[in-house]
Amino acid sequence: MGQEKLYLVFDMMKVDNEQESDYMEVESFWEKIHEQRMKNGDIIGWDLWRLGPGGENQGFQYMTVNLYDDPVKMMDNSGDFDAALKAAYPDMSDEELEKKFGMTPKARDIAVRIFLERIAVTDDDFEMPLGTVARINMMKVNQGDYSKYEKMETEVFMPMHQQAVENGNLSNWGLLRIMLPTGSDTYASHITVDMFKDMAHMFAPDDDDGPELTDEQMKQINDGIATRDLKYTYLATLIKSVKK
Q1: 112-126, 183-197, 222-236: which range is least confident on average?
Q2: Among residues 163, 240, 172, which one has the least CA distance to residue 201?
């Protein structure tokens, strides 16, 4: 992956235990629509992740991700939805479509929607197959400390993650900045994502201690860590994906 601009919408889904089967049916219905939206150029990809550790008290059990190469498209949710719908289900009647759409709000609640921009990513060719496992780390940084925090992540930590990718201990790492919502009452301001090809990869022994850090690098790390609060880490598994 290069350093192309990437914009993302995370929809954090609350799904009760008794809704699991209906929710999977709903997302399978939407998957075909997202395939057409991608073909039409409205989005550049779509993913569905199962979130761990799990349980109804966790807050969110699933997350969908819509991928864009343009922030205006992301914010406007632009594109011809009806065209995508008709291309995905040309033989489905209006009544059948209405019934399918009616299942959507009954199967899940979109509890939180987050608009993000990717600001750093490792150089790798990881293609995120189904079964990919990601640690999604929710960070809270005061707005006045964004620059210091992002400098620490990109100049100190990213080279370490890049080395881990090259050593085979990590598949991909990225830093995302939350564009909306913002403000002091928000839960998080940034997200880092550590990706592995599967669960076995994530738990594989790591004998690489990484490069020896200088005193200046240690100071940068400590100063950067002091700017953020790690609020929560989800363990996510990729279960559906639409991509070119």
Answers
A1: 222-236
A2: 172
